Amino acid sequence: MEVSSLQNGMTNFQSNAPPVVDANVWGLIGLKKGNKRKQQKALNNLRRDTKVLDLVDDIHNEKQKRRIAFRGVKRQLTLWKGPVLKNRLADQLIFPLNDTAVTLANSEESEFLRSKEHIRASKIESGSLQGKLYNAIYHNGVDIIKPSLQDKVCTEVRKKLLEKLEQREKERFLLTRFAAKNKRQNKIKSKSFHRHQKNRLLKEYEKEMESMRKNDPRAFAEHIMKAELNRVKERASLRHRGGSKFSRLQKLRAKYDAEARNAVSDMHERSRELTKKNNLDDSSESEDSTVDVTSESESDSDGSLFAGSNSAESESEELSRKRFWWYSVRFISLKDFGTSGTVDFG
């Protein structure tokens, strides 16, 4: 009874067992070890995912093979229609016929003949770039490129690459040395050193701006616009205001340091200059309106005196306004590089 139940279980397992690649006895023995639940889950996944292959249809396979072979033979035979028709229309035939008009596509001879025909047709078209190239390379079927010329070209290319690498290494070395110099200077805590450095940079900057104004007015105007943009950003940051954290710290230091007191006074002066409104245009317009309101007789009698006084006042105001503007531009432009030790003239 037990033997029959065991046989029935084996038959059921064989009928429902999934296909296993390279199965052996030791693999079946190894199923006794490990977690049975995981093994059952793996078997169920195999049973669900695998598909049983269809039965082999020998008749259908034979038909398919014959159909493919027939197509290949038919394709080869159709190549002979042209030569056969040519031989039929010929007046005289000399045997054996050494005709190479038809060659099979998969033969080495056909590949060689096809490439040779392509080169010959390209050499005939001497006007095209490919024809000129083939005429230069293939001369009576001989390769005219000399190995020495190729070695020379490789040497030149290698030389240019080495020069480019050397130039890049030199630029990298200069950049690292310049960065190390700036870092070393920024670590210096001497106020006199930084003051002299700032004065030197200011003189260099003024000289550069003067040369730019004379030689390239367009670049000078762009630089002025950039300085004005920096001024607007500084105004938006409100750092010049007296109630900011920076100003409070400066005031705290000003109790014990004369330099800090001077910095605080400069800061307040800067704040007054920035918050001051320039009403020069409004005043000039009001003066013009008062002059227009007066009678014609007064304008005739005192016109020369008013014109002279107004012109002198306008010239002085314009000169003071230009001086203040140029001072503002220099101060704002130097603010960015005063601590870093570098000047940006862009």
TrEMBL record:
Domain of life: Eukaryota
Entry GO CC: small-subunit processome
Family: Belongs to the UTP14 family.
GO BP: any one term: rRNA processing
Region (Disordered): 260-320
The keyword Kinase is annotated on this UniProt entry: no
InterPro entries according to UniProt: SSU_processome_Utp14
Protein name: U3 small nucleolar RNA-associated protein 14
Localisation: Nucleus, Nucleolus
Species this chain originates from: Fasciolopsis buskii
Acidic residues composition-biased segments: 282-301
Basic and acidic residues: bias regions: 260-280
Keywords, in A-Z order: Nucleus, Phosphoprotein
Stretches that traverse the bilayer: none
